[in-house]
């Protein structure tokens, strides 16, 4: 055995430690709960100079998978981590990686697949990739997360396949446990060995083609080779387990049982529930029950023979699935267990239960209850466990507040006219628009000082017509719609980050068609998509596609400069140099290392009729631009409005100073206020002319996330940001003063 030291850490932390010790070359990633901590910990290690891992923050999981694939083709050792819908967003890339036989390791920190949205842990995401051609290891403990990550890379390179290491989100991923790790990185690197490539892609003297077009019979031969590689896993992994045991003293097999040898009744399940069930088994054994529990460390290839052998003494088996294969009469684990027992001629009673969805806790008493159901001859073969009955519908209580109608908002406060094809707005003062009934109720869960409700309410003060909302995932959605409550007095729809604009375009088009058919009343409706928290990174493709198609709707972005709803990771709109949980400050890095994305100019380049930037520090300008955007959205096509939105928690400043912080961002021209109306740029506010222009450093010093940039060692970063800010503002001024631009 090699020397080891104790760590008190979570599964995500141990995964990061394993990645660092292995010495991976590159990680392509996108933050998604509950896997994000892996990237956060690795970035912190990078800032401290403990690893030279290349970390590329993609704009979405699909691109993260592409980054990983490209690097693995180039000969790198590559790592990724994701969860839930992030895994599903990347799923198109998974068969590409396995079908071309490039090894890598991906941690899947299991979480509920939306919708409706839930960030808690179950196994519904993992089961979608059973047919992707990736061997899948499942760790039920923090120690196994560390060990399996080491074993996974050796396995991947042995059989030339990408490998998944899966474990329970928020249970294994976040709960800290005492575990052991190797003291010396060299032990792990010697165990894995030097990477070799039979056909190196970057050997320019011997060029190869990867991923060529195939017809029959070549494709079926390719798939057969993939099948053979998966069969090779069955042969290789037990030997790797034995070799690893000699290094670590920890003994693993593809299946693990507890008091199963003579058990007449068995409970089979995955993940952290196995440890809970062991305690239940001990209690039932004290009562004279012949019970045991079994779990799997490998889902692909499925250990058919091994699981049958562990169940050899069982007369009755209960399979508990933390997901459902809807319509198949059980979850995937139960279906495969039934097939395995049939294949090996085991005459045994098998029942199954779906449990623990959405992270519902699993206690010792629950395991005991599952055993009791197994003994009950009248209990059905398949059912859900832990379902609670809903309340009868009460019409009087089903609506918390009266809906907002056109009579509540169409007050004539804002006058809209057209001059030379341009829309002119009169009225709309801050005081006058207070008469408009709020469509967002005051009850919500936003942090004190959060800019989201402020910006939403200012936007809606400029729109007197009925509004239909679509919210992409983010803080604004999470704090306003915790089931069964809602903060909205108008129709509201949610879809995920990457598809909000497309979803709203479909909704808008069918509404206009129903109005044309006379199926619903005619009248102006403003369709508004609300996005933020990095939503215009992963959702930019959908937004630009919607813009180019020209649907009549309004895209509103509250830009808080980070992925705030997942714990503040860097987004493409985060200021350069800003500290975040994936852009740490340390001896080798100074925070985010590239300039913020100019989304308004990207939208303007799509030639939509109206683009505007707004800020709560200039409320009347905000309201009038909202009114103008709504007018274009009703009659012309896509309008885009972007607000700088405060986040005191992650900007690390004070809630009562946010109006001043926003104002400083405007006055230093980091966030200039302007509009692009039918291709013509017009500055709304010029701090230079008003004598209010300040250096960017005066804004940066107001926030804890950028205060470190005031140190002499980061002077060049501030200078670069000042130059880029001045360059962008000068271009806007030149466009504004030009008769055509």
Walk me through this protein's architecture.
This protein is α/β, with parallel strands linked by helices and 741 residues long. Helix content is 36%, strand content 18%. The chain contains 24 helices and 27 strands. An 8-stranded mixed β-sheet has the order 19-18-20-21-25-24-26-27, sandwiched between helices. A 7-stranded mixed β-sheet has the order 3-2-4-5-7-6-12, with helices on both faces. Helix 3 packs across helix 4. The mean pLDDT is 95.
How would you describe this structure in keywords?
globular, 8-stranded mixed sheet, alpha/beta, 7-stranded mixed sheet, 24 helices, 741 residues
Brief digest:
The chain has 741 residues and is of the alpha/beta class. Helix content is 36%, strand content 18%. The strands form 6 sheets. An 8-stranded mixed sheet has the order 19-18-20-21-25-24-26-27, sandwiched between helices. It has a 7-stranded mixed sheet with strand order 3-2-4-5-7-6-12, sandwiched between helices. The chain has a 6-stranded mixed sheet with strand order 9-11-10-13-14-15, sandwiched between helices.
